[in-house]
Amino acid sequence: MFFQLDSDKMSAARLDKKKTLDLRKKHIGPSCKIFFSHDPIKIVQAKGQYMYDETGQRYLDCINNVAHVGHCHSDVVKAGAQQMELLNTNSRFLHDNLVQYAQKLQATLPDKLSVCYFVNSGSEANDLALRLAWQYTGHKDIITLENAYHGHVSSLIDISPYKFHQLSDAERNQFVHVAPSPDVYRGKYRADHPDPATAYADEVKGIIDKAHEKGGKIAAFIAESLQSCGGQVIPPAGYFQQVAEHVRKAGGIFISDEVQVGFGRVGTHFWAFQLQGEDFVPDIVTMGKPIGNGHPMSCVVTTREVAEAFMSSGMEYFNTFGGNPVSCAIGLAVLDVIEKEDLQGNALRVGGYLTSLLEKQKEKHLLIGDIRGCGLFVGVELVRDRLKLTPATAEAQEVIYQLKEEHVLLSADGPHRNVLKFKPPMCFTTEDADLVVEKIDLILTELENALGLKMHSISNVEKESSKRKPPIDENGHQHDDGLVQRKGSGQAAPQQTKQNKRLKS
Amino acid sequence: MFFQLDSDKMSAARLDKKKTLDLRKKHIGPSCKIFFSHDPIKIVQAKGQYMYDETGQRYLDCINNVAHVGHCHSDVVKAGAQQMELLNTNSRFLHDNLVQYAQKLQATLPDKLSVCYFVNSGSEANDLALRLAWQYTGHKDIITLENAYHGHVSSLIDISPYKFHQLSDAERNQFVHVAPSPDVYRGKYRADHPDPATAYADEVKGIIDKAHEKGGKIAAFIAESLQSCGGQVIPPAGYFQQVAEHVRKAGGIFISDEVQVGFGRVGTHFWAFQLQGEDFVPDIVTMGKPIGNGHPMSCVVTTREVAEAFMSSGMEYFNTFGGNPVSCAIGLAVLDVIEKEDLQGNALRVGGYLTSLLEKQKEKHLLIGDIRGCGLFVGVELVRDRLKLTPATAEAQEVIYQLKEEHVLLSADGPHRNVLKFKPPMCFTTEDADLVVEKIDLILTELENALGLKMHSISNVEKESSKRKPPIDENGHQHDDGLVQRKGSGQAAPQQTKQNKRLKS
């Protein structure tokens, strides 16, 4: 599908792609990775759930949760542009945008969460949450989840096993404790466990007890309300309540990281922590990515008690850009659009439709081990073996690469990089869902043919899977069964079959 | 001076001021301070070097270095608005704005500094600089300057004595070492020292030696190229070269924090570290505030060697908003305006003119102890006594408050909060300089009359001051001589005289 690029703005594609790539190699930190590194995409324009490359080729965007209300939404652009013309300054001056935005944001949260700090990124938000917790409790130890990712500043690398698993023990922070991910598909306690919520919460209790034995004191438990990079994990309901009870009993507080999953994405609720039940209220909520539809902004909301304790240190908190009138105008516009266009309702409806389509695919494709999600936050975990749960890492990468050739953007994540992640702009439609699932169906069919996987034994497999035991040392990095390393991609992928070639032509 | 508020956009003043203030108290973290807390200003519009309150009253802005090329500069607004309409996404896609901006920024720097990381704030930049230093050197210890401020995330509170001086020793980071501020007015080695640059650099050498004795290893020395919050301190030329030599010999690197002072503000050079001489090149430069004229963006630039070492850890660096096409379009526009309007030249000319006016005031007012600055980065240190250097903290606050009543925005900072800080938008004019200095003259005259300070002994004082010794325990918080605490302001201020009252009516 092609798009007429706005010719007035064709300065948007000024350099040829090779030149862009060469300059990038020269001047941008090599640790900053690019999508599809063997053949990256140059995007010059975007609208709604679609992105367009320099040739006008359209891509269906299933991954950019930051473009929450749709890429370049006109209401958001207008709000930002108008305010940029009027005033953009720091929050040491009084401004209505700041207080009206705080008020509107607060109205989406339980009453108790009433005090806001505006910052510039999810990382700044989570770092401030830690500072608040340390100051309020006077304690130092933090409990985080296995595979968690909370941001890129140094204090957050310390609490992000998704990042620090690469580090030696000596480089790890001794005040950080890692609890098992409450993953009922692949984790320590699974769907067949009578009460996984309690079992996982008891693990946290055990960590607290151990920390106490060593003289540690718990400042906070931090978790994404649904783990995103960690593999689209949906914790069992009741888990957070029990964890909060254990943590608060130890004098600590509960931080809900909603950077990836907040703002109506889960469909039934505005905040993902609310999936756990109305009786659960965290002490701090951090927000980020979707909050400004791409504009750099972010927020920490907490209770009056925590905020007063933070102030009592006597240390001022000043954030140069945080809460400036432009950011707040944009934030207000995003909230307005979510409401006006019923995007939370859309997430519920389209997310439900997408999940039902995927469930049908699971009946058809052995490679699909699990479908899990809420609203437009959906994970499809690919496995080589439904009993052993062998991660189908290479296959997941192949799906992603082939979808890209088909002009659909999807990504794979989780500790084994075998979970297809859906987190599209919230204006995603049922037609979009049909399109991407149809393409996944074709790609999986071909992959399964290449791997000799057939669905004939499905009923036995399903029976067996209810008796599953933890997989033994499956690291997801085996490249046998016709799988080869894709040149330059750094990722394993199946050998090209005829159909693969056709898909790419 | 009054201004016709743009009536189309009068939504800009939607709430009455009391309501804005009440909502702020309810919903914004109490640690987030406001200017002139006993009677804060509500700003609704700004242009160039002027800000306007909700009544249309104009204020001359001498403090907002963030609005670098002038508040709401039309080129910057246009660049941002146009790009917001087209595309705003992350840097995992190729985009010309990112690479062209990196290229243009690099061209302002020594060749060796060629690799950029785009982030969202000065704090994110300085935190990343520490991560780069730790990874490159494999060392952990950081040397920072007395009174330094490098940002609000937890790793930067650790290296900011301006902040952590409030903390107990137990709360301080044991890997952080504090070197004396190279302040030749009030510091350990002064203008009368034969070689203060070497003396201050030798202090750093001493710290390195002590750290080594205890088994420490130096990762980096970090300093603002000119200390800003620390009191507008201009380090003696040659200091950075010698420090860099000591630090590099110990296996560490040199980080120049240009967050406050970069982008041509110093007039003679684009970067303030260049004031030290062409033979000085830091290993990392961090940028912030002025880079996007208020848009939340920031950058770290380093050498290929440091960047490669960071990559070799295997850990990807991803920053959701950093380097997005809108931020880069804005950054490019800012660089273009600086060039097109010769704002660096303007900083040199107007800054020189401002400094010469202030020097004349120093001849007239005993309260002025020191004038120091480069371009449009100027500090005026107020003292009660030119021999003892007793900080005139309350007087500095009174100047600020009275200037506000006169619709001029200035601030006071430094460890004793007695340094008047000029860092206006770069379009500041000689007329603006005349206006603010004339008002300061009136205020100081009145203050000196109230305090009974006369200039009669000036020549003796000046003679004495060349034999100065370090002041004994001057904390700047004495409120005698008719000075009382201003109610609600939390700041000390002189009693109102008749003229004070007139100024405020």
UniProtKB/TrEMBL annotation, chains A, B:
Keywords linked to the UniProt accession: Lyase, Mitochondrion, Pyridoxal phosphate
Keyword Lyase among UniProt keywords: yes
Source organism superkingdom: Eukaryota
Catalyzed reaction equations: phosphoethanolamine + H2O = acetaldehyde + NH4(+) + phosphate
Top EC class of this enzyme: lyase
PROSITE patterns: AA_TRANSFER_CLASS_3
Amino acid composition bias (Basic and acidic residues), ranges on this chain: 461-484
Entry EC number(s): 4.2.3.2
Region (Disordered): 461-505
Localisation per UniProt entry: Mitochondrion
Gene3D superfamilies: Aspartate Aminotransferase, domain 1 (3.90.1150.10), Type I PLP-dependent aspartate aminotransferase-like (Major domain) (3.40.640.10)
Cofactor: pyridoxal 5'-phosphate
Any one Gene Ontology cellular component term annotated for this protein: mitochondrion
GO molecular function, one term: pyridoxal phosphate binding
Pfam families found in the cross-reference section: Aminotran_3
Record has ATP-binding as a keyword: no
Its job: Catalyzes the pyridoxal-phosphate-dependent breakdown of phosphoethanolamine, converting it to ammonia, inorganic phosphate and acetaldehyde.
Subunit: Homotetramer.
Family membership noted in the UniProt record: Belongs to the class-III pyridoxal-phosphate-dependent aminotransferase family.
Protein's UniProt name: Ethanolamine-phosphate phospho-lyase
Record organism: Parambassis ranga (Indian glassy fish)
Native organism taxonomy: Eukaryota, Metazoa, Chordata, Craniata, Vertebrata
Gene that this polypeptide is encoded by: etnppl
